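Many introductory courses stop at the sequence. We go one step further.
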Amino acid sequence: MIEVKDLQKSFGDTKVLKGITTTFETGKTNLIIGQSGSGKTVFLKCLLGLFNYEEGSIAYDGSIFAKLSEDEKRNMRAKIGMVFQGSALFDSMTIAENVMFPLRMFTKQSKSEMRDRVDTVLNRVNLSDAHNKMPSEASGGMQKRVAIARAIVNNPKYLFCDEPNSGLDPKTSMVIDNLIQEITQEYNITTVINSHDMNSVMEIGEKIIFLKNGLKEWEGSKHNIFKTENEAVTDFVYSSNLFKKVRSVYIENDSKKTH
């Protein structure tokens, strides 16, 4: 579990995060959503330790990150997996070498142990025959699965995903969503996803944090979001006619169940 208390972050005179308090639960897919400029990217970078913040705290299973020694911070980072928006694969490395990279950085495993672990995670993301391919030979969906394999190769306790479906078609996006959720549950990881994809929210949003102007405007699940009367949330989520119709049907069916 990741616990955030009164998190505040400014750039110069501009306050971007204005006191966010929330928790991200273990074994669940936790989504951060919000419009551009809401603060969600800055929030994610604070969670990752890439940005310092002026007030508040972030605790990983009870350990406040800012109070850790440099060695302890390094050990904590070894427990974190990251799926970047553009996959961020190394063009000069094969897929297997890309996946092996965190093991070489953070472990003292032998080459055979590392190869075995790479085989395991590539099999898990259905890329058992892709070891010797270069990233340029892989489709966008394959590259994203490689990025997920690399993120989990070190058995992380925490998984962060920044817009994991960016640039993918709807069918491939659903495959990636389901894969992330399955891995979260299998490995009992605390997964945090920064997303603007409402299909992802409705598909795997076990906990959703909605930010607006640097504040936590709302939180709940994909089921709660259909029922909320929060105008900022409904304007964001139901900006398309499709989701307005989905909400209408959901409310109608829910009403029938209660009568």
